[in-house]
Each structure stands twice: as structure tokens, then as C-alpha cells.
Specification:
- The structure is a single chain.
- 29% of the residues lie in helices and 24% in strands.
- The protein is of the alpha/beta class.
- α2 (71-82) runs parallel beside α11 and α9 runs parallel beside α10 (272-285).
- It is built from 16 helices and 24 strands.
- Residues 62-374 form the FAD/NAD(P)-binding domain.
- NAD(+) binds at residues 238-245, 325.
- One of its GO terms (biological process) is 2-oxoglutarate metabolic process.
């Protein structure tokens, strides 16, 4: 590797969970699978501590205790430390959480070469150079690099840099404002919070109740994003984001993928055309897409997975991935000690305060408001600011769009699905807007009407929709489907969250010739 590349890699900054990482923080050895966290790190106590002679457990007081050190928990800690509040963070696995090691980062590292190759194959002068298969070992090695080979040294160092104390182990509530941490060696530590405990434990994969499924050792999103080789044959069960992205990735990396979808189509939380275009592309890539299909049984016979569908079809594969939903990671965090149901979603107000409490916050996926890393980080920034305001006894600005209200959760949530083509949306779909009682009109245009799309790739196929509120003449939602649209969605997010009037959007002139000129086509179609 050249000295120039080494220098670029060493100075590379990534923002994972709202904090900077440098290339130097990430190990470069590429061996091994998802690892086990290192031993408990000795935390510094910023507040006075004591030992309980009855239980012989250390008891340490903080202003704030955060359960979970994923991106959401890290952002809560970042905001509370910025406000001068002493903060402890409890983590039983890797600091950085699901997103950094088994979701966002590794999945997108797998998908980026797939999407880049597909784009290149649409460009004369380049297409002939990229007709061969992807270099799967190289793709997997790069994926490993972006997970730091499942080591969290860099993120631990980041926590240390903001003077937040890390406690390795299983954290459980033990009554109001109290958390006990059972370390890897069995040591029990009691943490008390003067102001707040924030639960940011996220979710885990939900598996169906099929007899003998555990013996099959099915893949979940964790195995799908950390596998060190491509299975020859892979069954993917599900039709949502994880299912479609992993079907896209592993088919391109050499697996023969069969996608089994119980519903009528893919990506059913987006506009129908999004799932239709993605399904057509998957089929063109060689994926066997079967909608309206349920799995009745799964066995593993001599190493081969055998799935039997409700239609009686017998499908054999080397691995089977279930991407059939998520459940809250709250079954063993002591919710019963504070009058809440173990294993339940935690209902929270717009300041992320758990209903019925004045000290417990539920932030990120665990509150079921919007199961997306970026939205959880947004909530964490809001929650951290609200905790700080209450601790300082200053006004809490919890009116809609106030500094301490996660208003965007209700109608301005963006999402990108990194399939080929990409699908990106923000706000409400047409069906959701109508169900909410808004008087709306959907406006659709094809990307083929945009000069920038033709330049982007020969035969560019994609569609855009905006859902216009006819009473306020603002946008309730926007959906883009097509190559490269993931980088286009933030403009729509600003329009929706900012409630920018249609009359003002006419003055936001898109640069020519770019994909963003789709905005002009949409506005022209609306005005007629």
C-alpha cells in the first residue's frame, strides 16, 4: 500500500453514532469473527462512592446513568457530559452497539461495491471493465475494516475522551434511579443517578415460533452482516429493509438467494412502487423472489437447510436468514422493579421521558417511535438536552419543534434502503397521510424526465412522489426510488420538517444537470 493511501487512511474521519473516529483507531488485521468484549474497564467515579456492607457491592453516584453504549447511548452521554453532568455508561457487549458492528456499517460496506458495480455497468466506456464478479474476499475484508474487526477500542477511547465512565457488564434497574451492573467476573456494582437513567438498550432480532428452529442455527441480521464467506445457497425470509438489502448483497457476492415474502410485496411501509421496483431489480439480478409465501417448517439435514413453505415447496440451502422483525431488548433490565412490564416497549413523551416517571428516559429503538439509528441519535440529542435542562431547573422547551421535543418522530422521519435501486423516503406515504385525515394529493414523476438521470446512467429507471397537503400547501411526504437517490433525500427532509410552502419551493432552484432537478419536475406536475 502506498504511503499516500496510508496517510489518507490514517487521517480518515468517520462519524459513527455522532462521534469522530480516525483510521488509526481501527485495527487493520482482518482475521476473526464478531468478538467478545475485553474485560471490564475500571471506571473513574466523578461522584462520591461507598460500599454497602450488607451486600459488599460498590455503590457510586452519578448525575446520569445510561444503559446501552450503542450510537443512541453514546449521544445521550455526549450531551449530558457537554452539560457538565457526571455520566456512567453501561454496556454488556461492544461499545458502538448494533449499528457499528452488526447493522448499519457492515451492511453498507457489503452493499457499496454492489451498487458501484451496478452503476458502472450502465456506463459505456466503463461497462466492459466491470462485467466479472465482485472480489468477495476483498469486499468482506473491507467490511471487517469498517467494523474494526469487531473490536471497540476506538469507541471506548472516545467515551474516555468525554470523561464518561464505562462499566462493562449486564445492567439492570434496581428501583428508582438505581442500576446494578453484573461484571464479567460476577462483581456487582450499584450505580445511582441523581437526575436520570436513560434506557438505550435497543432491539434484537425476532425469530418465528417454528419447532426445532434453534437447532437449525438460523442467521439473523448479525450473522448476515458478519459472515466471513458467502454461502452457496441462501434463503432469506422477510420483505423489509434487512431482507431486501441482504438479498441484494449476498446475491452479488456469489450466493444463490431465494427470498420468501409472506406479504404481497416488498418494503410495505413505503410507497408501493418502491417495493415493485426493488423486486424487479432483485429478480433481474437472479434472486428467486416469492411473495405470498410463508415458511411452515425448517430443518437442517446433513448440514443442508430444508425449508418447507405453505404451498408445500421444499427449498434447500446452506443457510437461512430470518429478517422478520425486531423486539425490544428490555426483558432482563429490571423493568419490574420500577413497575414496568419486562420485555415491553417503553412509551415515552416527546422529551423521551417514560410516561409516569420523572427520571427514566427511553431513547432509540426501545421506545418504538422510529426504529432507525439516525432517528435514535436525534432522540438522544433531544433527551440529553432535556435531562440537562431539568437538572439545571431551567425551562423545558417541549412545544412542537422545541429544543427539547422530538417532534420529527411524528411526521418527518427519513430512511434510505440501500438496495439496487435505492429507495428513500421521508414523512408520510400517501396511504398514511390519508389515514391520518389529511386532505392530500400525490404527484408522481419518472426520473427519465430529468437530464441528470440520463447522464448518471444509461437506461436509468426510477420514480419520485411528493404528497402535498392541499390545505397548507406543504409536503407531508416524499419518496425517491432510483440509483443514487439516497444522497437526494435530505433535501426532502428539510422541506418536510421545515414545512416549506410549495410557493417557496419554487424559488429553490435545482442545479442543472443533476438528479435534484426532479424537484422541478414534481413542482411542474403539481401546478400543471
Amino acid at each position: 500500500m502506498s504511503s499516500t493511501v496510508l496517510l489518507m487512511r490514517a487521517s480518515l474521519f468517520l462519524t459513527w453514532g455522532g462521534r469522530p473516529w480516525t483510521g488509526r483507531n481501527r485495527p487493520h488485521n482482518m482475521s476473526g469473527r464478531a468478538g467478545i468484549p475485553p474485560p471490564t474497564r475500571v471506571a473513574r467515579a466523578h461522584a462520591t462512592g461507598k460500599t454497602d456492607p450488607m451486600t459488599e457491592t460498590e455503590s457510586i453516584a452519578y448525575d446520569v446513568v445510561v444503559l446501552g453504549a450503542g450510537p443512541v447511548g453514546e449521544n445521550v452521554a455526549d450531551r449530558t457530559r457537554a452539560a457538565g453532568l457526571t455520566t456512567a455508561v453501561v454496556e454488556s457487549e461492544l461499545v458502538g452497539g448494533e449499528c457499528s458492528y452488526w447493522a448499519c456499517m457492515p451492511s453498507k460496506a457489503l452493499l457499496r461495491p454492489v451498487i458501484a458495480q451496478a452503476d458502472a455497468r450502465r456506463l459505456p466506456g466503463l461497462a466492459q471493465s466491470v462485467q466479472g464478479p465482485l472480489d468477495t474476499p476483498a469486499v468482506l475484508a473491507r467490511r471487517n475494516y469498517f467494523t474494526s474487526n469487531w473490536k471497540d477500542d476506538g469507541q471506548v477511547a472516545w467515551l474516555d475522551g468525554i470523561s464518561a465512565d464505562l462499566y462493562r457488564g449486564h445492567g439492570r434497574l434496581a428501583g428508582p434511579r438505581t442500576v446494578t451492573v453484573t461484571g464479567p467476573d460476577g462483581t456487582l456494582t450499584t450505580l445511582t443517578a441523581r437526575h436520570a437513567v436513560a434506557v438505550a438498550t435497543g432491539t434484537r432480532a425476532q425469530l418465528p415460533d417454528l419447532p426445532g428452529l434453534a437447532a437449525v442455527k438460523p442467521w439473523t441480521s448479525r450473522e448476515a452482516t458478519s459472515a466471513q464467506e458467502a454461502p452457496g445457497r441462501l434463503i432469506v425470509v422477510g420483505g423489509g429493509v434487512v431482507a431486501t438489502e441482504m438479498a441484494t448483497a449476498w446475491q452479488a457476492l456469489g450466493s444463490r438467494v431465494t427470498l420468501l415474502v409472506r406479504g404481497k410485496g416488498l418494503l410495505n411501509r413505503m410507497e408501493p412502487f418502491a417495493g415493485e421496483l426493488v423486486a424487479a431489480s432483485l429478480a433481474e439480478a437472479g434472486v428467486d423472489v416469492r411473495t405470498g409465501t410463508s415458511v411452515e417448517s425448517v430443518t437442517r439435514e446433513n448440514g443442508t437447510v430444508v425449508a418447507v413453505t405453505d404451498a408445500g415447496d421444499r427449498i434447500e440451502a446452506d443457510e437461512i436468514l430470518f429478517a422478520t422483525g425486531r423486539v425490544p431488548h428490555t426483558d432482563d433490565i429490571g423493568l419490574g422493579t420500577v413497575g414496568l412490564e419486562p420485555g415491553s416497549w417503553l412509551s415515552a413523551d416527546d422529551t423521551l421521558l417514560v410516561e409516569g416517571t420523572d427520571w427514566l428516559y427511553a431513547v432509540g429503538d426501545v421506545n418504538h417511535r422510529a426504529l432507525l439509528t439516525h432517528q435514535g441519535k436525534y432522540q438522544a440529542r433531544i433527551a440529553g438536552a432535556a435531562i440537562a435542562a431539568r437538572a439545571a431547573d431551567t425551562p423545558v422547551l417541549d412545544e412542537p419543534w422545541g429544543a427539547h421535543a422530538a417532534t420529527a418522530d411524528h411526521g418527518a422521519v427519513p430512511q434510505v434502503v440501500f438496495t439496487e435501486p435505492e429507495a428513500a423516503a421521508v414523512g408520510l406515504s400517501l396511504a398514511e397521510a390519508e389515514q391520518a385525515g389529511h386532505r392530500v394529493r400525490a404527484v408522481d414523476v419518472e426520473f427519465s424526465s430529468v437530464a441528470g438521470a440520463g447522464l448518471y446512467a444509461d437506461g436509468y429507471q426510477g420514480r419520485a412522489r411528493m404528497v402535498v397537503d392541499l390545505d397548507g400547501e406543504i409536503l407531508r411526504g416524499v419518496t425517491f426510488v432510483g440509483p443514487g437517490v439516497g444522497e437526494l433525500i435530505h433535501s426532502a427532509t428539510i422541506a418536510v420538517a421545515g414545512q416549506v410552502p410549495i410557493s417557496r419551493l419554487w424559488h429553490a432552484v435545482p442545479s442543472y444537470p443533476t438528479l435534484s432537478e426532479v424537484w422541478l419536475r414534481l413542482l411542474e406536475a403539481y401546478r400543471g
